[in-house]
């Protein structure tokens, strides 16, 4: 119970109390304003503050999960927009912390430059995505075609403009601050923007690749908390005194199980498993396809060890469920490192939460800190193990090459096929 | 508690005095003091870096001992400049592989220089793990980039060896796993009293990686496109440096920017025109030799790099009509030029107009962290980073320029992806390609190709 008591005390307080013995003072943390809506405040006014906090967190959790389901129902376009908004809000939160740390709110140009860089990097990434997935749409519209052909050059020119503005804005007495903020902005961009684009790539692969990882991380959060609540005894890591080994391991098994069940349910529906495609004729997103073999039920032999336990000889599963084990494992074992990183960050800069956007939870970044590593992992996983290159895309690229290059590739491919015995002596196969 | 407060008060006072003496404006004192409060160690005695050790070789010192300090400095710089240019020519002669090694060494040295500055600024030389982690991240990122490059250009070499195939196929996953290990080690190495320092160094490392490693890989990609794409941009930047200095020396009057008081508008403009002319003439000479013009390819039979090909149309003399304006001046109606020379004008313009911003950025950085030079590697010139600060923007620009205006998609990459496909997909792609080629008349259907 003592570990649970500390949940209500500010993490930042405990940390800064001990830290302040070694690091002299420090700017006061941004005073946390109570954001809880009036309604909730009144409803819970009778309970003690500890239970009140618990209820607020609980209600907001349910609210966020419900919101999540609604968005999923609304479709890929809305999801993309939400991802974009979350990204902007996270960027804003982290940059604001930087301003507070460096008292650099008044630096000339700096706010404008940060937002400008965010715009540039987003333009660059969205340009790459749009060109890939909206290929036919882009080819049709003349201005879009030119923008996409010289996309890199335009993005680079935009970025350079920002860079030159930064150099010209260097003010004699604030060099170091300005360089710090420049570095801070770039690292934030690196984290926030790249990951949000990887999430969108995953989304296009199929909504299940978006929903299962995110749910696993959320589930791990909640399960580890519950196991810790009921069974927690051994602290896990000094950075986050609330976390316990019991919570960690319990959360791991619970998440793997949850992942298996969730993927089983979702693999049955085409709207989740099919890659999102843009239909040129209807000008909207469609999710309609022949499910790939990942999402077709197959018989698996249960290893002898488990046969005695479970009592079945074979089991019908989707191959995707095996992948979901890998995803859940990552979410439970490595995902928390993202959380530790964020905790360390908050202690380093003596803040309790990233912001006060969500009552009881803190900022958007607080909710999404574990998601970032997850998104990158899923993307790398898909690229390495699931998706091969897209043949039609390759043919499109082929057609843009010069004739001599085309011939060279054709001959190499032919030699390769002959080698593999697929072509033999058939010339007109 | 009170002892701590006293110490803190004493430190603040000391710092206030220092800052007041140095700055003399209220706002400045306020700002620096608050900054100092936050992270006392940064400001109290930021390395007005230990006075640079004089690494000028003994020989030079003796030879020049007679001259006054100013001329001595000028001579040292001059001699070292010539030495560097000679090394450059030597490496070019030795070929692409040596150039790649050179680029790699420069990258590692620049990284080392910047990280060392970070250590000194944050007095974090003793942080646990940090040095190992910084080098580890450098290794990871290099592994990732080299893997992407190698896979592209050495496709035939890789095809033959099974273990390499495995590494290539799962390259991204392996790189990510390596990076994650470093990330987790970082999180586990966070020590209670040094959180902020550790996060600063983590960020410092990543920004440095972003700058030095990505650019050096772009340089190598430019190199593979053809040595001329490597030589002309680098020479233009060097030429701009030298001619701007010379014009500034003789005609310099109006200061250009507060950041670098030595730079003048006369130097800037004079340097611009000389660099464009230089680039124009230099590309004329280089464009004639296949050695410079052809994309570097790896020949798996001889196990070496070859630069042999049919020069693309960029490097074939074409007749251009001189616009009527210039006709009167030059007296010619047409002129024989390589199309590449037109591109070289774009490259030189960038080198002269935007390249210097890289230099200003580095100057601002040095002032921000109160250092005179990045390091003392080259006598008279400072560190490697000092020489290469303008080159970084240039490398990225050339790469973007090539991908946007010159080169279509990379055939080797396409080939690599084709070979990863499933056999049935390969067969269907093969048939589509064949019918396309026959349609276009590139492939003769009757010929047993």
UniProtKB/TrEMBL annotation, chain A:
Keyword annotations: Lipid biosynthesis, Lipid metabolism, Membrane, Nucleotidyltransferase, Phospholipid biosynthesis, Phospholipid metabolism, Transferase, Transmembrane, Transmembrane helix
InterPro entries: PC_trans (IPR000374), PC_Trfase_euk (IPR016720)
Region ranges (Disordered): 1-37
GO cellular component: endoplasmic reticulum membrane
GO molecular function terms listed in the Swiss-Prot or TrEMBL record: phosphatidate cytidylyltransferase activity
Superkingdom of this protein's organism: Eukaryota
Keyword Transferase carried by entry: yes
Ranges annotated as spanning the membrane: 109-126, 153-171, 178-200, 206-232, 244-266, 320-342
Reaction(s) catalysed by this chain's protein: 1,2-di-(9Z-octadecenoyl)-sn-glycero-3-phosphate + CTP + H(+) = 1,2-di-(9Z-octadecenoyl)-sn-glycero-3-cytidine-5'-diphosphate + diphosphate; a 1,2-diacyl-sn-glycero-3-phosphate + CTP + H(+) = a CDP-1,2-diacyl-sn-glycerol + diphosphate; 1,2-di-(9Z,12Z-octadecadienoyl)-sn-glycero-3-phosphate + CTP + H(+) = 1,2-di-(9Z,12Z-octadecadienoyl)-sn-glycero-3-cytidine-5'-diphosphate + diphosphate; 1-octadecanoyl-2-(9Z,12Z-octadecadienoyl)-sn-glycero-3-phosphate + CTP + H(+) = 1-octadecanoyl-2-(9Z,12Z-octadecadienoyl)-sn-glycero-3-cytidine-5'-diphosphate + diphosphate
Function: Catalyzes the conversion of phosphatidic acid (PA) to CDP-diacylglycerol (CDP-DAG), an essential intermediate in the synthesis of phosphatidylglycerol, cardiolipin and phosphatidylinositol.
Protein name: Phosphatidate cytidylyltransferase
Organism of derivation: Falco tinnunculus
TrEMBL record, chain B:
Compartment annotation: Membrane
One Pfam short name: CTP_transf_1
Primary location class: membrane
EC number: 2.7.7.41
GO molecular function, one term: phosphatidate cytidylyltransferase activity
Key words, A-Z: Lipid biosynthesis, Lipid metabolism, Membrane, Nucleotidyltransferase, Phospholipid biosynthesis, Phospholipid metabolism, Transferase, Transmembrane, Transmembrane helix
GO CC terms of this entry: endoplasmic reticulum membrane
Membrane topology qualifier: Multi-pass membrane protein
Parts of the chain that traverse the membrane: 74-94, 129-146, 166-188, 200-220, 226-252, 264-287, 340-362
Family membership: Belongs to the CDS family.
Protein name stated in the entry: Phosphatidate cytidylyltransferase
Species the sequence originates in: Falco tinnunculus (Common kestrel)
